C-alpha cells in the first residue's frame, strides 16, 4: 500500500506537471458524416461561433457539450460499483423523491443541500474554505472539490473545477427538420368535442385542442442537427496546479487531502465517458485518430501520460482509506428553511 499511495506524488510536487491533458477525436455512431444534435440553448438554439461573427459565415465551431454538462455526466459515476466507496453517499429526501448529492447541479452549494439537515455543516465547511481549509468540505462533499462549487447564495466560497472537459464540432452544416401530426379523427366534426372548444385556428399553440393534442399539428424548419465536416473533439484538462492549492489545517492532513482529491480526479479523468449525449447524439472515439494523453510541465514541455484507469482506481482506494472517507447518510429536506430563504430573497428584492 505504501508504494501505491505515493505512486502519483510527483503530480503534487511544486515542480511537478501543471496539468494533465486529454484530446479525443469523436464521431457519430452512424459514421463521420452522420447527423447529430448539439446542445440547444434558450433564445439562440445551437451555440455556433463563426469566423465572421457579424455575417455568420466562414469557419465555425459548435458547442456540443459544455464543461458544466460534461461534469454533470461524469460525476454520477461515484454512486456506482467500486467508485461508490470512494466518497460519502449523501442522499437528501424531499417529499417523495430522494436525490444523491452528486446528482444535483450545484453540488454542495445547491438549494436542496442548503435547505437540508446539512445546512449547518456545509455552511461551516464553506467558511473553512474561505480560511484556506478544504478538509471539512472534503469529508461531506469531496466531488465538489473535483468538479467545482460556488456557494453563491450564502458564504460566496468558490472552488474551481479541477476537471474541465468540453466537446466541440468544427465546420458544421446546420440542418432543419419538419414534422406533421395528423389527429386520428376530426373530433369536432364527429361531435366528440364541442366547436366552442376550438377558440383559435387549427394548429395554433393557443388553441386548447392543439395544446392537448386533439388537432393536426405542424412543426416546420426546426433544429435538425448538424454534420461536422471538420470533425468532433473532446478536450479535457486536469488542473494539477489548482489541486496543489488545496490545503487542510496541518501539513499531514494537507498531504492526505491532496492525495485523496487527486485519486478521485484521476479516476474520473481516465474513465472513458459514456457515448450517449442526448436523443440523436451518440458519440464514440474515432478509431482512425489516436487519443492524446499528455503531462504538461510548467515550462510547456509535453510528455505522454501513462496513467491507466486501473492504476488510478487502486491509488484512489488507497488514498481514500488513508484520508478517511466521510460518513454516508440520509438527510431530510427542510421546508421551513426553504420558505425562510425565499422570504428573505423577496424582502431583499423589494429593497432594491
Task: Kindly describe this structure.
The chain contains 11 helices and 18 strands. Strands 1, 4, 5, 10, 13, 14, 15, 16 and 17 form a 9-stranded antiparallel β-sheet that branches. It is α+β, with helices and mostly antiparallel strands and 352 residues long. α9 packs antiparallel against α10 (309-323). The mean pLDDT is 91. It folds into 2 domains: 2-170 and 229-351, no CATH class; 175-224, no CATH class. It has helices at residues 2-5, 67-74, 111-114, 119-130, 135-140, 143-147, 208-211, 240-243, 251-270, 309-323, 335-351; strands spanning 19-28, 40-41, 45-46, 48-52, 57-65, 90-94, 97-100, 149-150, 158-159, 163-170, 172-181, 217-228, 232-238, 276-278, 281-285, 292-296, 302-304, 329-332.
Q: Kindly report how far apart the N and C termini lie.
A: 58 Å
The percentage helix is 25-40%
Average pLDDT, all residues? 91
- Per DSSP, the total helix count is 11
What is the CA-atom radius of gyration, in angstroms? 25 Å
Oligomeric description of these chains:
single chain
* Secondary structure category: alpha+beta
Helix and strand element order: HEEEEEHEEHHHHEEEEHEEHHEEEEHEH
